[in-house]
Design brief:
The complex is a heterodimer. Chain A is an alpha+beta fold. Chain A has helices at about 35-45, 90-100, 110-115, 130-145, 160-180, 190-195, 215-220, 325-330, and strands at about 1-10, 15-20, 25-30, 50-55, 60-65, 75-80, 150-155, 185, 200-205, 205-215, 230-240, 250, 255-260, 270-275, 280, 295-305, 310-315, 320-325, 340-345, 350. By secondary structure, chain B is mainly alpha-helical. The chains are: A alpha+beta, B mainly alpha.
């Protein structure tokens, strides 16, 4: 448990936080750039000195009016946006840096971490020869080998190209399950958050505006995330992977969902990210249509979000799905709360983590 | 070369060696503090350190001579502590050389520390490294070349000093007579053979050291 009650000021920027985080799983901190999310992470790590107030982590006081525990005694791991690998050490020695200094704590073994991150082939390379994605994987490994009690990650994917992101993303989701380390993850990218976070914290102008379970904050038609980039997150189980054409069949609230992803295992729990703009509505069940995913839902909320668009909340059994439609369609179809509606979306638009 | 000349070589090397060690010991923390300093006091400190670069050595030598006198506080304190005088002694020479060569060590180190990526130190700290650990595991490996450069500059500059030594060291063979003074003496007494040997020796030493330094510098920039 992480308890924060502090105030931080620099030039004309202010950060004011009074919040307690349970920190089970991945907690995502999201907000526009300049909202103070990186500063929040730095204050928790002890990298900002002029913090006034208290910071404590599971019974240990890290900071109050008398105490300031320096970062190296906090037992944290920190993954920086720019990696910050030591250029004078090769990959192996970078990884060992954290390991050597964490002997007292029980952490993951060197072998397990390098295999999991798939960095075995370049252990003896100089860090200056690595690609961006490789560097970031080494940085994550280095932080994990320090046996952190809390892992802080500051936009670790922001500087990477799409391919590297796709290769690292599933691992980030895995850190918590695999190593049992609570993760506090900062990003401005909504899709990243939808894929990774269990709990979501929304920041604006140096304050925490809202927080809650990710699914609840994302899958709704109001609040700061209800705009034309809205997306929803569905929890699903893999039912069959042996369908023709490389299609995998998922179960969401008793409904079938087709995704064209082939690296999944039967029985696995996955998370499906559905951009609201990709979902279209139909009042009757049409069979002869190329769209593979047609889910029967109930319309439970509808709101106009700007001049042209409306967001529709569709409830399956318990889970919710967002659809972005035009206000014209809203009136043309005479959509009302309580109506049965078929949600259509293509298999190809889905992100499965 | 005469025995006296060899003595001068020995005194010079001892003086330069000891001075360099002290310079590193004092200059390192000084350069570190200066590099991290943000207050308006910084240019004043930088000017004080850099003073020997522009002052005629005789000015510095004169003030040191005054300070070393047992009648004044620094000389008196030294005498109370050790029972010897600073003026015209090897210890006095070392002290003067340290002050005289300080900018040659502090300035390159300060520049190196200013260019050091502080982000790496934060990363080291997050991985459990305390300040001393960070210094040896990150700062030193990252600034090894400038450190070597600073040490060489300090050494060479101490070997090359003349004015300050003349003012405060006098000319005691085997104790305070360094090569540059011995050379001056040889010329005064028209012993040109010795003068040639010593001058050529110093010249060769300076040249070799500078070539080594500049090739080191080039490697650092590659």
């Amino acid at each position: 448990m992480l308890s924060l009650d502090f105030h931080y000021e620099r030039d004309d920027f202010q950060l004011q936080v009074r919040e307690t985080f349970a920190l089970d799983g991945v907690t995502g901190v999201m907000g526009p750039s300049g909202c103070g999310k990186t500063t929040l992470l730095r204050c928790i790590a002890g990298l900002e000195k002029s913090v006034q107030g208290t910071v404590s982590f599971s019974n240990a006081c890290w900071q109050d009016s008398k105490i300031f525990v320096p970062p190296y005694k906090r037992g944290i791991g920190y993954v920086f946006q720019d990696g910050r690998l030591f250029p004078h050490r090769n990959v192996r020695d970078n990884l060992n840096y954290g390991l050597r200094r964490s002997r007292k704590r029980h952490g993951p073994s060197f072998e397990s971490v390098v295999e999991w991150l798939e960095i075995v082939p370049f252990l003896d390379r100089s860090v200056t020869e690595l690609s961006g994605g490789q560097r970031q994987r080494v940085a994550i490994g280095r932080a994990l080998l320090g046996a952190p009690r809390l892992l802080l990650m500051d936009e670790p994917l922001a500087a990477l190209d799409w391919a590297s992101r796709v290769s690292i993303m599933p691992r980030l989701r895995d850190i918590n399950r695999q190593f049992g380390v609570p993760v506090l993850f900062v990003s401005h990218d909504r899709e990243e958050m939808a894929r990774l976070s269990d709990e979501l914290v929304l920041m604006e102008n140096g304050c925490i505006e809202e927080r809650g379970r990710s699914r609840q904050l994302l899958n709704r038609a109001q609040g700061s995330l209800a705009d034309d980039h809205a997306l929803s997150v569905l929890e699903a189980q893999v039912v069959r992977t042996d369908r023709p054409y490389g299609i995998t069949e998922l179960d969401v609230d008793g409904r079938r969902l087709m995704v064209d992803q082939s690296n999944l295992k039967e029985g696995q729990s996955v998370r499906v990210v559905v951009p609201a703009a990709e979902v279209s509505l139909c009042l009757e069940d049409i069979e002869r249509i190329s769209v593979q995913n047609r889910l029967k839902t109930t319309l439970t909320d509808i709101r106009d979000i700007d001049e042209h668009h409306a967001l529709v909340v569709l409830t399956l059994e318990e889970q919710k799905l967002l659809a972005l439609i035009t206000r014209r369609s809203r009136h043309r179809l005479a959509l009302k709360v309580g109506m049965p509606v078929y949600a259509h979306f293509k298999a190809a638009c889905l992100e499965v983590v | 070369m005469t025995g006296e000349a060899w003595q001068a070589v020995s005194v010079t090397l001892q003086l330069a060696g000891l001075t360099t060690l002290l310079l590193i010991a004092i200059g390192l923390p000084m350069a570190w503090k200066l590099a991290g300093m943000t207050s308006g006091f910084r240019p004043v400190l930088e000017a004080l350190v850099g003073l020997p670069l522009v002052l005629p050595p005789t000015v510095l030598g004169f003030y040191l001579l005054v300070a070393f006198s047992p009648n004044n506080l620094p000389g008196q304190v030294w005498q109370d502590l050790t029972g010897t005088t600073l003026a015209f002694s090897f210890s006095g020479l070392v002290l003067a050389s340290v002050i005289y060569s300080l900018p040659f060590v502090v300035q390159p180190l300060q520049r190196a520390f200013e260019q050091l990526d502080r982000g790496l130190l934060e990363a080291a700290s997050s991985l459990g490294a305390g300040p001393i650990d960070r210094f040896f595991s990150v700062v030193l490996p990252q600034t090894f070349r400038p450190l070597l450069l600073a040490a060489c500059l300090g050494f060479a500059h101490t070997v090359g000093e003349f004015g300050v030594v003349l003012m405060i060291g006098g000319n005691i063979p085997g104790e305070t007579q360094v090569l540059s003074i011995a050379l001056y003496d040889a010329v005064e007494t028209q012993d040109f053979a010795s003068a040639h040997t010593m001058a050529a020796g110093l010249m060769l030493f300076a040249l070799v050291l500078l070539i080594a330094l500049y090739s080191l510098d080039r490697k650092g920039h590659r």
